[in-house]
Structures are given as C-alpha cells and as structure tokens.
Amino acid sequence: MNQPLPFGAGRNGRPAAADLTEIMGKVARGDKRAFSELYDALAPLVFGIVVKVVRDRAQSEEVTQEVMIDLWRQAARYRPETGAVTAWAATIAHRRAVDRVRSAQAATDREQAQAAREHTPAFDEVTEQVETRLESEQVRRCLRGLTELQRQAVTLAYYRGLTYREVAEALRTPLPTIKTRMRDGLIRLRDCMGVTA
Q1: Model-level pTM?
Q2: Most buried of 9, 27, 122, 173 (most Cβ within 10 A)?
Q3: Model pLDDT, residue 113
Q4: Cα of 124 vs its chain's centroid, Å
Q5: What is each CA distance from 177 to 67, 126, 165, in whole angstroms?
Q6: Residues 129, 96: one domain?
Q7: d(Cα 71, Cα 2) in Å, to the nearest integer?
C-alpha cells in the first residue's frame, strides 16, 4: 500500500462519485492500490468532519486513521443504492468522532469521581473522629463529677500544661493539697471513664 498523504492533502483531480463507487468495489475485493486511491480521496473529508467534533488535531488524526481502517474493513458492506461513498464515509467519521468525545468525557468524569473519593474521609477516619468526640464528651461529663478544686487542678495541669507548683500558685493552695486533689481527681476520672489500671 502506498504511503498515505498528510491530512488535508489530496490529489487535485479527486475521483467523481461514480469512480468512488467503483474504487470501493475494488477495495471490497481487497485491492490495496484501490484503497490508496480511496484514502487519498476521502481522508481530507473525513479529517474535516472529525476535527469539527473532536477539536483536537492529534486526536482527530487518530480518529481519521481509525475511520479509514473501518472503510477498508467494511468495504464489502457498502451498498451504492443507500447513498454515495462520501456520505457513507462521513457517517462513519461522525460516529467515530462522537464516540471519541464521549470516551474522553467519560474518562474525565471517572477521574473527577476518583478525585472526589480521595478527598472524602475514609470510613476509619470518620469513625475515629466520632469516637474522639464521644470520648471528649465523656471526659467533660466525668470532669463535672469532680470537686471544684479537683476539676480546676486537673484542668490547669492537663489542658493548660501547668506544673503542680504552677497549679498550686494559680489556685493559691498548698502544693501537697494540690497533689492529693489531683491524684484523687484522676482516680475518679479513670473510674468514671471505665479505664482499668
């Protein structure tokens, strides 16, 4: 088979419709030279249709090649009484171009859906967040069960990061008393939350 001409190029004297019908008959019988003529005659038309739909030159060239291969493979199915060769080729070209656009859109949709799934927290993360919130609520409830001094001491030490001495100074309470109240408060918290030693 001859090397195909670049898209948009063709012989100045393109075959007439009757000649294309005859050429298509030869292509249907496997004549490679006839297919080369058919290619030269139809590739520019097919490319023009495809590029209007696909809008990307590189993809349009691929689709045009696919259409021309379809014309080679399906040549025996062509019936002159149903229309001109050019109309048949144009129909195949348009269908292939639309299929390519739909395929590209489906791929884009899949990628966007995948990206959305990746940005949705996994079940384990959601479960962990819920458990953390429930535990926080339980801690708050258990803290309400402590005496005022125990609650203040525990809150200053564990939520504000103060040392025993700093807690004693902040609450104006002797250091041994703070240590005792904190120990008792932590034991009550542990029991309230059901933590085993």
Answers
A1: 0.54
A2: 27
A3: 85
A4: 22
A5: 90, 42, 11
A6: no
A7: 16
**Structural domain boundaries, residue 25:** 17-119
Cα of 58 vs its chain's centroid, Å: 23
Domain end marker among 92, 119, 146:
119
Phi-psi region of 120 (alpha: psi -120 to 50; beta: other; left: phi over 0): beta
**Residue 48: which CATH number?**
1.10.1740.10
Cβ–Cβ under 8 Å, residues 164 and 182:
yes
3-state percent breakdown (helix, strand, coil) of the chain, nearest 5: 80, 0, 20
Tokens of 42: 């139809």
Q: Are residues 94 and 181 in the same domain?
A: no
Interval 37-75: pLDDT, tens: 999 999 999 999 999 999 999 999 999 999 999 999 999
Alpha carbon 116 to its chain's center: 7
Sign of CA pseudo-dihedral 94, 96, 102, 105: negative
Assess if residue 11 is contained within a domain: no
